[in-house]
Amino acid sequence: MACCCAQEVVFDANLIENSALEDGLAGWAPVGSCTALSVHEEEPAKVPTETINDVAEDYRPSGRYILASRRADEADGLRQAIKGALRPRLTYRVSGWISVGGAAEDTECAGGGHAVHVNLRLDDECVVKGGAVWAEPGKWTEIKGAFRLKKSPCAAEVCVQGAPAGVDVKVMDLQVFATDRKARFRKLRRKTDKVRKRDVVLNFGAAASGISGASVRVMQMDSSFPFGACINPGVIQNPSFVDFFTKHFDWAVFENELKWYHTEAQQGQLNYADSDALLDFCDRYGKPVRGHCIFWAVENTVQQWVKNLDNDQLTSAVQSRLQSLLTRYAGRFPHYDVNNEMLHGSYYRSRLGDDIDAFMFRETARLDPGATLFVNDYNVEGGNDPNATPEKYIEQIAALQQKGAAVGGIGLQGHVTNPVGEVICDALDKLSAATDLPVWLTELDVCESDVDLRAEDLEVVLREAYAHPAVEGVVFWGFMQGHMWRQDACLVNSDGTVNDAGERFVDLRREWTSHARGHIDSAGHFKFRGYHGTYVVQLATATGKVHKTFSVEKGDTPLVLDMNL
Prior knowledge:
Helix 8 (311-328) runs parallel beside helix 10, helix 11 (390-402) runs parallel beside helix 12 and helix 12 runs parallel beside helix 13 (451-467). The radius of gyration is 27 Å and the shape is globular. The protein is α/β, with parallel strands linked by helices. It starts with 27 loop residues before the first strand and ends with a strand. It contains 14 helices and 26 strands. InterPro entries: Galactose-bd-like_sf, GH, GH10, GH10_dom. One of its GO terms (biological process) is polysaccharide catabolic process. It holds the Pfam family Glyco_hydro_10.
């Protein structure tokens, strides 16, 4: 039974007292029998100045922090009770700043830092993950965590733990607050209007004198922002799947059929039958296909016969894979994920040296120069994986480019749970500012067993992606129950009915489609504001209806189009 009575939700109110340490250590307690806590003031020049914490417009980090020293175990750290009731079904953000010191400053640690975790401990001893950062000595890293509960606890406390024994953990301005998704959506609608729409003037010119006041209807036929979904040989035999796919998606990606372990499960026995059949299916319906993937950097995805090769044989096998795939399908795949998940795996680099990843890009560009080549990885947009931060992704891309790799796009897989819009936007901002490369969400699935919450979570991700100028497309990693990697992410039930999450997706696509009606003015113009894409205009005159197609592309100034009917 829940111990907390229902209370009105106050969004964006910090639930941690004495967060900025105005009252010293009041309310704070150590975790671990040896841990010592003390309050310190950071040098002004070292206090962070940029933050995604937009709860208060004038918020700046205080500069005061708790030092947890004499830690004897990774579980040691600090804790603070959360005031008030935590409500179920709400998304709470965890924010603040983390650094490390002590042993980390005196000895070289892996990657220059340590993983530090923020967890919630509930009354039943249940531990809920609230965030994780890769903390480095002499540097403050912002926490971008989140959590959601299925029931209200009687009591809850937030704990900061992690980093090896002997490493001091520093915590500045730790905060927990309920997010106001509706307020965020209002901001995103305004941003979307600027990013994805344009003023249009249809000029009927010389014919204006004869058609002034004539009825005009403008209909958007397709969008310049594509949505796609993954397919496999089984699902394209399902009429309900095919119906939803062909109506609501513009692109495709193959689930497994292009991966090396599928096309060459046994050495020298090439099998492209499934990928050929899927390409034929997509050709019939006019759907471009992302090429996923040429290689996969994670060791447990590599075929055993490949692992059995010596290094010279492996080098030859890599070259043969590139030659076989890219000559067979040259020009067929507009995108390629060249070496999947290099933030989480390094199989080929560990075997063949630091240049092999860039070599894969260089050779792909040589063999299929028309394809855009992507890096592709998971958790970068979530803010909770110390191995997959935007900063580490940027470093990886820069290192590839320095070695001649033609990195043309950034893939964010988007396997998300309980997403936070501000965290997604922060990752997109950092990636686009540092690389100036287009971003695609390449494998989106939003996992939540409660389908109503799943619909809300999906809207969070899609609105953030659509409102961001760097994002050029979104591809779902399946959408039908029983035919997905993560089953609690479906948009369409196994019987073909569209659930609430699927309806939300359809509604958003409808919202992001422009139609207009009216009459030609005395100057011979018809004006409207529309989303980027292809349109048809229908003009009703005394002699009948006339149709003409036109395109609305990105631009900051009004688009004036001569109709010349």
